């Protein structure tokens, strides 16, 4: 059989050309570019050599065991803990942390619907875990001005029905470092599991040049920790680690059965057959960079973060939320400014987008205590973020947006029928999207501010259903 591989790959290249750029620092979320083409090549080559291997069985494919041992040795040395697993990503690490804690909680006598207690800023993966593993997510309000968590807000909610407490290092939305030592100590005193979600911070905070409060598995009371190698480990997507304080806790993560007539199934992860490509890529990157390489990249990232933070803090009408730790920050309207001098962060990021910079818009959120977290724009800074190029465009974008009032969500909502059915079927949801100008195969509008205002204004179940429809239609043939 012959095939025209050049034509097939040309078709793929044409599709890829329409993507947001994965390299060069123009997209300030999702992608983590070390700015080292040689490192990318090495990672790709390592992954390629594992292409035909099945990561399901490291006793048959012993290279998989060797690579995982090496990656875990580096992870445990850097982040503490006694045992761990390489997973397919942050969500899987978080899901497995919850499953493990739930099983240990049940083994300790827990029954009924247990709770996950976490700040509302904890990653949505923990809400997903609660749904999947029959737990209830109990979101604890954070300070609405700074996004920071008070440890006592967590400890006040501890009880026999708590299967797991989650804190972040740092939180994704606001880069807030949760009070990990205080929360973990309280958990230890009550015999409750405490997970540190360092999916985003785990591979950069250990090398960060500024002082960071203790947050690893070396903190007494921390029982597990997640850290994504496909973020600041600069690996291709599909690799993270979940570490545990003790071997026995890690063993509770496994699923094992001999109760069927096929091969004995013994899985530490959610998947069965799986790729070892991203594992090999991460392994090669760790080999190549070593601690010094990670430190250099963190230093570059820190420099860009400080420059951006100072510049944005100096823009009239905007403010950086709280005191961000690590390479992220969130930007909100400065309510201290006179109304006609304020800058709406979503109009601002729409203007920056027109100049070729993709910043991530985050909706506001009313917390359980009635306080409102402002809508913000998020920036994830990487080693290639060029603050000198970005800052003038951010200043110009603010000048363009200054004094423009935020989108009136109520007005946007009125473009929808007043009475929405309680449950939307695919046709109705599709028609609503069409009416909103969002019918076009997954492409989002140039101006995202009205879209985000709608996300904030609609009842959550309705907007969640509409977003499901939008994403489902994006991939429907
Ligand atoms: C990215 C992230 C996750 C989820 O990770 P995925 O790799 O996207 O599945 C969880 N927690 C935090 C803090 C994150 O930044």
UniProtKB/TrEMBL annotation:
Highest taxon, organism lineage: Bacteria
SUPFAM superfamilies: PLP-dependent transferases (SSF53383)
Keyword Transferase: yes
Keyword annotations of the record: Aminotransferase, Lyase, Pyridoxal phosphate, Transferase
Transmembrane segments: none
Cofactor dependency: pyridoxal 5'-phosphate
Keyword Lyase tagged: yes
PANTHER family, alphabetized: PTHR42735, SPHINGOSINE-1-PHOSPHATE LYASE 1
UniProt similarity note: Belongs to the group II decarboxylase family. Sphingosine-1-phosphate lyase subfamily.
Name this polypeptide is given: Aminotransferase class V-fold PLP-dependent enzyme
High-level lineage: Bacteria, Bacillati, Actinomycetota, Actinomycetes, Micrococcales
């Amino acid at each position: 059989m012959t095939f025209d591989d050049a034509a097939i790959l040309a078709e793929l290249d044409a599709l890829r050309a329409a993507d947001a750029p994965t390299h060069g620092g123009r997209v300030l979320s999702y992608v983590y570019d070390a700015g080292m083409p040689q490192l990318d090549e090495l990672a790709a080559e390592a992954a390629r050599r594992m292409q035909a291997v099945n990561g399901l069985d490291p006793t048959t494919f012993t290279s998989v065991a060797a690579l995982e041992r090496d990656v875990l040795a580096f992870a445990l040395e850097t982040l503490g803990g006694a045992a761990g697993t390489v997973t397919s990503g942050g969500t899987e690490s978080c899901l497995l942390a919850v499953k493990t804690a739930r099983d240990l909680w049940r083994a300790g006598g827990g029954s009924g619907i247990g709770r996950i207690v976490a700040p509302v800023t904890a990653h949505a993966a923990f809400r997903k875990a609660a749904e999947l593993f029959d737990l209830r997510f109990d979101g604890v309000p954070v300070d609405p001005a700074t996004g920071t968590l008070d440890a006592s807000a967590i400890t006040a909610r501890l009880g026999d029905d708590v299967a797991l407490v989650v804190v972040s290092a740092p939180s994704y939305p606001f880069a807030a470092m949760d009070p990990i030592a205080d929360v973990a100590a309280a958990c230890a005193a009550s015999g409750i599991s405490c997970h540190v979600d360092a999916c985003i911070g785990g591979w950069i905070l250990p090398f960060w040049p500024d002082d960071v409060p203790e947050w690893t598995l070396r903190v007494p009371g921390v029982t597990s920790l997640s850290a994504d190698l496909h973020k600041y480990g600069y690996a291709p997507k599909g690799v993270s680690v979940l570490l545990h304080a003790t071997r026995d806790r890690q063993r509770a993560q496994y699923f094992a059965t001999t109760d069927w007539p096929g091969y004995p199934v013994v899985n530490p992860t959610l998947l069965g057959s799986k790729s070892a490509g991203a594992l090999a890529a991460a392994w090669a990157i760790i080999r190549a960079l070593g601690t010094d390489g990670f430190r250099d990249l963190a230093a570059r990232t820190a420099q860009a973060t400080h420059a951006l933070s100072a510049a944005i803090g100096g823009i009239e009408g905007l403010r950086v939320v709280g005191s961000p730790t690590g390479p992220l920050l969130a930007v909100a309207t400065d309510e201290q400014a006179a109304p006609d001098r304020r800058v709406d962060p979503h109009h601002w990021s729409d203007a920056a987008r027109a100049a070729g910079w993709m910043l991530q818009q985050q909706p506001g959120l009313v917390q359980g205590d009635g306080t409102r977290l402002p809508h913000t724009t998020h920036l994830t800074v990487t080693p290639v973020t060029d603050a000198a190029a970005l800052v003038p465009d951010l200043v110009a974008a603010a000048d363009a947006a200054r004094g423009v009032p935020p989108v009136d969500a109520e007005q946007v909502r009125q473009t929808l029928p007043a009475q929405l059915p309680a449950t939307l079927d695919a046709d109705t949801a599709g028609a609503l999207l069409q009416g909103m100008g969002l019918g076009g195969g997954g492409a989002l509008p140039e101006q995202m501010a009205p879209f985000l205002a709608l996300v904030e204004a609609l009842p959550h179940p309705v907007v969640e259903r509409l977003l499901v429809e939008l994403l489902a239609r994006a991939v429907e043939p």
